[in-house]
Amino acid sequence: MLKDIRRLEAVQRRFIKKLEGLHSLTYTERLTLLGLERLEAKRIRADLLFVYKLLFVITVLSADHYFRLSERSVTRGHPFKLFLPRCYTNVNVHKRYFCNRIVKVWNDLPGDTDFTSIGTFRSTL
What we know:
This protein is mainly alpha-helical. The protein has 2 domains: about 35 residues, no CATH class; about 80 residues, no CATH class. It contains 5 helices and 2 strands; from the N terminus they run H-H-H-E-E-H-H. It has a two-stranded antiparallel sheet. The longest helix is centred in the middle third of the chain and has 17 residues. The relative contact order is 0.12.
């Protein structure tokens, strides 16, 4: 999967480099000028929105199939911390699963993140 992500990012990099007047800029400068994000950032944003939909039952899928809300009282951050049961296996492929890669990102969201609606949540990302 990492190889595919790098290939897609390379395609985007080559394409926007060919745009007139952008050849001499760095990749990050070109993205900023065009109002674009790195593909990795887009994927994380989409994953966070999907977690929101799972937790607040905006989709027919159940969050219980992926993770649970933490039962510990929250002392820092937002009140919707996730808990992922530990998987005891030697297979490294599990690190790439959606639920394994998004729990830390979700739990690291700042405490002032607005969860009142998906629109306000989207705007705070």
